[in-house]
Design brief:
This protein has 445 residues and is of the alpha/beta class. It contains 16 helices and 17 strands. 30% of the residues lie in helices and 22% in strands. The model has no long low-confidence stretch (mean pLDDT 92). GO terms for molecular function: lactate racemase activity.
Length: 445
Amino acid sequence: MTQLAKPNYVRLVEDTPLPRIALCRQRFQGTRIDDPARAIHDALAAADCASKIRPGMSIAITAGSRGIAAFPELVAAIVAEIRARGADPFVVPAMGSHGGATAEGQTAVLAKLGVTEDVIGCPIRSSMDTVEIGRLENGMSVRMDRHAQDADGIVLFNRIKPHTSFRAPNESGLAKMLSIGLGKQSGAEACHSRGIDQVPIYVDLMARMKLERCKVLFGIGTIENAYDQLSEIAVLDSEGLLEAEQPWLQKAMANMPRLPIGPADAPSAAGNLDVLVVDQIGKEFSGTGMDPNITHRFSSARMMAHATLHVSRLAALELSPRSNGNGNGAARADVVTARLEQAFDREAVYANALTSTVLLQAKMPMVMPDDRSAIQAAIKTCGAEDIAKARLLRIPNTLQLEYLYASEAMLPELQDRPGIEVIGPPEPMRFDGVRLANPWPGAHP
């Protein structure tokens, strides 16, 4: 077989030196729940609002597109608890426009996350059909998934966490699941129609209307620790749900991991980094593929004004298979690989971007043939005084930050840093074909 000629632009970076890197481990504080089913049982047993479930009721349970620790186990446990109370549960995909804004696509997203009818033990009723339950004062339509609206009761389920594009009393969690997730594509489009900075206003207004006019019984929210593990479960009554969710958001913010840059006691990373290499992006890691709360590369100009970390160059190497082609957020990288571009499904990405009105998220940055050339392109253009001593970090994704690789130039500042340990010697970057091959401990990519 004739070997393809190397593009000329690759020749421009092939002499760029690659730094030696050392494996490091971060230590975070946090509790962990080891038995999700028992935790759901105990949480519902202690919640008075669970008594709203009556025998014979049809109950819609929401399931979104975000990665949630123990997601299938938690949904199966909620199904079992509802059925044990004599009701008839089913799951509704509640993910706005995700999954290409089709019923089949949203079912496929859940399957990629391990949530199937066989696993959870009840039907999944997926449809993009909605009903209008009212209009806001400005005339904006408030939409509700038809299957959920036709049920005798609705149980909201979602992870509570900081949003990637705005700050508000309620961000990603039960309020957003109710307003945008259950609004399907049409509801999500309406909520985003005035721009990303206005989204929290409409999340609040739409969620309050739905709590007043729809049969929401209660919500179940999860909190995760910095290791992407289930930490706490909150059961919140529909009455006063938005206010009750707010302190849980603050807990979630305090639990977030961070890159080891800047003061160790600061709430997030701060300062400058020459190069950040992210092995995988994807919807299970963040709604924007890479969580900007970690990278500080926000899509909103308002959020960028509050960024404390400046990453000169960011290279993203792969789109997670579980993202089902949704490469939303690749645009926040400076360079990606050909295999990420090949996995990029415009149907999924464009539906997401058009609905959210954030078209920037659908763009494709510079594409290099493989991991080596992508990393070299990032280093060559990072602006470091001496690129042979570039300050570089490599992470598996923006959700799991226990382990990371640091370039040799960063080791002096990390060796004495509280909460971090350099556990491996500096070693050359190794490549297996097109991929960076220095291994991750455990189940990391």
